[in-house]
Amino acid sequence: MDTSRIRLVAVDADDTLWDCQSYFTAAEQVFKETLLPYGPPEETFARLTRRELANMDSLGFGGKAFTLSLVETAISYGASTDEIHTILQAGRAVIDLPATPLDGVVETLEALRGRYRLILYTKGDLQEQTAKIRRSGLAPLFDDVLIVAHKDESSYRRLCEANGCTPEAFLMVGNSFRSDIDPVLRIGGSGIHIPFHLSWAYEEVEEYDHPRLAKVATFKEILRYL
Ligand SMILES: [Mg+2]
After folding, report:
1. Separation of 41 CA from ligand 1 center, angstroms?
2. Distance between terminal CA atoms of the chain?
3. 160 and 134 belong to one structural domain
4. Whether 89 and 180 share a structural domain
5. Cα–Cα distance, 203 to 219 (Å, whole number)
6. Of 95, 123, 154, which closes a domain?
7. Are residues 13 and 51 both part of a single domain?
């Protein structure tokens, strides 16, 4: 991949800069175990997934939306107050996840700093994302931090325009092919995909090869291209 024209680099946060999905997975495990008296795990989990999708329009993405879906689903089974409390605490652990930078993140961002206009670009709940970014301590390594409701072709076009560059000069780094890679390639930008070892079913999409796309295993490997 030729990155000689790249001037603007945006970086996803959850599951790119820090672990997020494993906290969701752990909470889902608590949910399934707590509701075992009410049905097999596949069944209670399927009802949770339907609830999350139904809540997506009004609540969007993130730990708060997830926690409300957990609790609503538990109530729909007639779970006890204690069981609901257990499930609520599991959801809280997602909201309050530590956002500790993954291995190599700090050194890599320091190496990129000053060489590109560097933006942390994340979607989700404003308060929740802001708090995670603060806990991560990474904000000073970026030129700007942006939290948006959706990452799609129009939001990436706006990101380029706001930074005075064309999509040809823009590269996005992230773990989600659906949110971080596909829409960027569609508008003429470039991407570096760093798949996380866990993924959220909602974010799963068919992946493809592209001349403006590279795939690496760890964050520090982005320096092979930047
Ligand atoms: Mg992500």
Report:
1. 26
2. 10
3. yes
4. no
5. 20
6. 95
7. no
Report the amino acid identity of residue 54: A
pLDDT reported for residue 205: 80
- Asked if the structure places residue 2 within a domain, the reply is no
Cα–ligand 1 centroid distance for 24 (angstroms): 13
pTM: 0.92
Cα of 212 vs centre of ligand 1, distance in Å, is 20
| Last residue within a domain, chosen from 77, 95, 113 | 95
Does residue 26 belong to any structural domain of this protein? yes
CATH of the domain at 53: 1.10.150.240
Ligand 1 centroid from CA 17, angstroms: 8
Measured in Å, residue 216 CA sits from the centre of ligand 1 at: 15
Contact in structure between 138 and 105 (CB atoms under 8 Å): yes
Which DSSP letter does residue 216 get?
-
Cα 199 off chain centre by: 9
**CA-to-CA distance for 216 and 99, rounded, in angstroms?**
21
pLDDT per residue as tens digits for the range 162-201:
999 999 999 999 999 999 999 999 999 999 999 988 766 6
The whole-number pLDDT of residue 197 equals: 80
68 plus 148 within the same structural domain: no
